[in-house]
From TrEMBL:
Gene3D superfamilies membership: Resolvase, N-terminal catalytic domain
Record key words, sorted: DNA integration, DNA recombination, DNA-binding, Plasmid
Gene Ontology molecular-function annotations: DNA binding; DNA strand exchange activity
One Pfam family hit: Resolvase
Name of the protein described by the UniProt record: Recombinase family protein
Domain called Resolvase/invertase-type recombinase catalytic: residue spans: 41-176
Record-stated family: Belongs to the site-specific recombinase resolvase family.
Length: 223
């Protein structure tokens, strides 16, 4: 019991420290929504992989920053599809704010993944703020400029990735690399199956003989 009390006191102490640090930041967040038609909600997002103690620290920071609701998740930051993060993003409305304790809590998937998430937040009319990175704050005067820049960089990065991927696939195709699933039949088996089909054997029987779905086609069926 004494240990639990000590941990609770420690958490409360951290919250008091963070509140004093985040006072002016919270005022800026509130002013961000002053021109919005819908009531603003300040959301927090906390993520850990294993350590519950680290989660306590994040919760203390987010509470001090004025978060009204915190979405917590225990997942790897490199995982693309995170259920709780997806729920948060779907909930966002114009004027809302998403706060994280640090960028790497949002994702560890690299710059493109980070930019993609930020672009989705700003595209919904919401703002973003990282407590550990003061520059990552779209609630201040230059927030619209930063949001537009994030969206542009994310779009250009995605276009570059698609272009490089397409070029790589084309080079591989020219070098004889085949994409897609491996054929179930070898060339010899395919020719044998087609020969049996041309001889008049039932297509379903041929498919059962070769243990494949009966979708055999021959470009020379009219020959």
């Amino acid at each position: 019991m004494k240990r639990a009390t000590s941990r609770k006191d420690s958490t409360n102490s951290r919250r008091q420290i963070y509140r004093s640090r985040e006072g002016r930041g919270l005022a800026k967040i509130r002013s961000f929504a002053s021109g919005q038609q819908n009531p603003m909600c300040v959301y927090g997002y906390a993520r850990v992989s294993t350590s519950s103690q680290e989660l306590d620290i994040q919760l203390a920071q987010l509470d001090a920053a004025g978060c009204e609701r915190v979405f917590c998740e225990k997942e790897s930051g490199t995982k693309d599809n995170r259920r709780v993060l997806s729920q948060l993003l779907r909930r966002l409305r114009p004027g809302d704010v998403v706060i994280v304790s640090a960028h790497d809590r949002l994702t560890r998937g690299g710059p493109f993944k980070m930019l993609s998430i930020l672009a989705e937040i700003t595209s919904r009319g919401a703002a973003y703020k990282s407590l550990a990175e003061p520059w990552a704050d779209t609630t201040h005067e230059l927030g619209e400029v930063l949001a537009a820049l994030v969206g542009y960089i994310a779009r250009k990065t995605r276009e570059d990735i698609i272009r490089r991927t397409s070029a790589g696939r084309e080079r591989a195709r020219q070098n004889g690399v085949r994409f897609g699933r491996k054929p179930k039949l070898t060339m010899a088996q395919r020719e044998a199956a087609l020969a049996r089909r041309r001889a008049g054997e039932n297509q379903k029987a041929i498919a059962q003989a070769f243990n494949v779905i009966s979708r055999l086609k021959s470009t020379s069926s009219n020959a």
